[in-house]
Amino acid sequence: MKTLAAPDSAWEARVRWGSRRLTAEVLDGRGRTTLKLGDAPGDDIAIGSSARLELTWLPTGLEVRFSAGVEGELSSPGDAGTTFSELLARGRVKEAGDAFLLHLDAGEDLTVRIGTLIAEVRRARGRFRRLPLDASALVFILLALLGVGIVLASVLAPAEAPTLRWLRRPR
Q1: Residue 92 neighbours by CB distance under 10 Å
Q2: N- to C-terminal Cα distance for the chain?
Q3: Which terminus of the chain, N or C, has less C-beta within 10 A?
Q4: What 3-state class would DSSP assign to 168?
Q5: Average pLDDT of span 114-139
Q6: 23: which residues sit within 8 A by CB, 6+ positions away?
C-alpha cells in the first residue's frame, strides 16, 4: 500500500486477524473504489462468516455498509469512541433493507470486528505532511531569500571603495 502519493480524499483499510496482517488497501477515486468482506462469490476478502462489510469510496467521504454480526466503533480526535449501537440510537447509522449504512467524514476512524477479524479504516496519510503554500507564503519566502542575498552580497563584497573618476576636473 502506497499512501505517500494518495490524494486528500483517499482512505486506507487494514485487515488483520489477531496480530497477523491479512491485507491493506487504499480506496480513492483514481484506483480501487470498493472493498468487500464476506463469503459471497464477488467479495474481495473471505471472512468465514455470514456477516458482510462493504466499503465504498465517495468524493465526500466513505460509505460503510454492514450486516448483522458486525461490531465496531467510530472514533474522532478527542473522542473516546462510539459503538454501532450508540450510533444507531443517535440516528447516525441508518437501516437500508437487510444492512446498515454509515458515512465516514474526514478525521474519523473506524474499527470493525467480525469474529476475530479486525478491520481498521481511516484517512490515508502520507509519510510527510504537505505544507499549505499559497501565493502570499511564496511571496514572503522570496522576499526573505532576496534579503538574505543582499546581506550576503554586502558582506562578501570587497572592502575598497569605488573610484570616482567622473567627479574629478580635467586639467
Answers
A1: 14
A2: 84
A3: C
A4: coil
A5: 76
A6: 14, 15, 45
